[in-house]
Amino acid sequence: MTRRSPEPQAPAAGWRGGWLRAARRLASPNHDARPAGAVVDLIVVHSISLPPGEYGGGQVRQLFTNRLDWDAHPYFAQIRGLRVSSHFFIERGGALWQFVSADQRAWHAGRSHYRGRSACNDDSLGIELEGLEGHDFEPAQYAALSTLCATLARRHPIAWIAGHEHIAPARKADPGAGFDWAQLSRALAGSGMALPPGVLFQKQ
């Protein structure tokens, strides 16, 4: 699919550059520039918890800012030295954090392919939900996520929303079967943003 050149947009209210004023800002060094001409039209939904299944300890924020103590838990030996980030992170209670400017390329997708394009980091925004893949998420997280998606769509020409599992199916399974795509679809009704085929029937 051919990339379209971005059209000039007026500064969006509620933003300071690529930083959303409503989010708690904690800058990550794990980012770089998007390629010239990249059109940010995809939102990728992830899930993460550190250690897996444990919430509220701050380790996800530490990972994204290269401050995680690799010796603090046996699981961390498996990810020692990992340098990753996401644009946004939504905690179980709905608190919203931002780690990378929306104008920059966060390191969240890895090897990926979606809507006819590879390297989804180039033209996507990554949103991490605090949670374990396959498990349920909290109402406050859905509320924060739907608000954030709508906010991002007012600044960028967002046309698609997908899970990490949809853009890297051979490697990733998040956010998994516990994520309620139908709930997100209802919240974003009329937005024109397309969800992955078949997801509305996964969770009943």
UniProtKB/TrEMBL annotation:
PANTHER family, from UniProt?
Answer: 1,6-ANHYDRO-N-ACETYLMURAMYL-L-ALANINE AMIDASE AMPD, N-ACETYLMURAMOYL-L-ALANINE AMIDASE AMID
Q: Where in the cell is it found?
A: Cytoplasm
Regarding protein family, the annotation reads:
Belongs to the N-acetylmuramoyl-L-alanine amidase 2 family.
* Uppermost EC category: hydrolase
UniProt keywords (A-Z) are: Cell wall biogenesis/degradation, Cytoplasm, Hydrolase, Metal-binding, Zinc
Query: What's one GO MF term for it?
Result: N-acetylmuramoyl-L-alanine amidase activity
The protein's annotated catalytic reaction(s) are: Hydrolyzes the link between N-acetylmuramoyl residues and L-amino acid residues in certain cell-wall glycopeptides
CDD domains, alphabetized: PGRP
Q: Which InterPro entries match?
A: Amidase/PGRP_sf, Amidase_domain, NAMLAA_amidase_2
Tell me where the transmembrane regions lie.
none
Q: What is its EC number?
A: 3.5.1.28
The cofactors it requires, by name, are:
Zn(2+)
> What are its GO biological-process terms?
cell wall organization; peptidoglycan catabolic process; peptidoglycan turnover
Q: Where is the N-acetylmuramoyl-L-alanine amidase domain?
A: 28-176
Protein name in UniProt:
1,6-anhydro-N-acetylmuramyl-L-alanine amidase AmpD
Q: Which domain of life is it from?
A: Bacteria
Keyword Cytoplasm found: yes
Cellular component terms (Gene Ontology): cytoplasm
Where is this chain primarily localised? cytoplasm
